[in-house]
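ok so for the tutorial part 2 we go from a plain amino acid sequence to predicted structure tokens. step 1 is just haveing the sequence, like this:
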Amino acid sequence: MRYRTLGKTGLNVAEVGIGTWQLMGDPGMWLEQNPSESQRALQKYIEVGGNFIDTAWVYGFDDNNPDRHPSEELIGDFVKSSKIRDQVILATKVAPKNWHWPAWKTDKIEDCFPSDHIVKQVEDSLRSLQVETIDLVQFHVWQDRWVEQDEWKETVQKLIQSGKVRYWGISINDYQPENCLDTLKAVDFISTIQFIFNIFHQKPREQLLPYAAEHNIGLIARVPLDEGGLTGKFTKSTNFVEGDLRKKYFAGDRLGELVDRTNALKELMGTTAETLTEFSLRYILSHSAVSTVIPGMRKEQYVVENTSVSDGQSLTSEMLAELENHSWERNFYSFGDPALSED
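step 2 — the prediction. this is what the tokens look like for a chain of 343 residues:
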């Protein structure tokens, strides 16, 4: 495994981190998973040299058990039983109080992140992860105009000063890669940005990546495989079961267009990669501004396959230029404010 610096945190993180949304299932999003299988995936990730584990207060949340945080709890049990706390970097997220994903244009920061809510969720995460300090806490949604308010800034700084949180970041709204730049310009204690970035969604290259490189902001690339679409494993007859978010995400004509586009990518990649998954992850790691990419990996096989791309082999500049022609900017998520800007 190769490592990169997570911006001004100075932390050395594995180029391939592990996303954990799927590890314990998520009602209405991901089907229930096998905790033992998820534990084995975490163990394999550590064995191959991985050290960056990204989770969230809300991952696995169930209205029937509102005080439980399944993904964080699984990770906490694993880290404690394995006695590897000093070997891993743990990142989690504070969920918006009003449950808006992404943050609506009309939301005020007191609707999403009032101070007492921020503090409570950090305390919840500390208990679930069974640690005294969390390496990185991120706001799970964002609107850039919130930077004008001061209360959240004071709360974050107090949590950092208390030793409960080492560094703070933002996981920005889906497909809105510029919706954080004003905040980064005004607030020096925001160290990282987590954002969607993949072959289809290349807009982050326009402003976010150059800004982060110039100002030493750590970049965490999520949804690198477009909810599985960029694995190249789907066909026009693929049928997603109820309870799998992809049933809606790739509904109607979307699946057919996806398959046409991934077939074209397979033809383009030729012998550059053995699979479209490998090709897609190499695309992201070919951008030096990216600190780490976090595919969801709930099976040992996925861990081995995905982490193998951390070998220093980037795509050529000619290939990257050609891939610009394969951009497919769209937002297939069915939730959130329909008036949200796609900027």
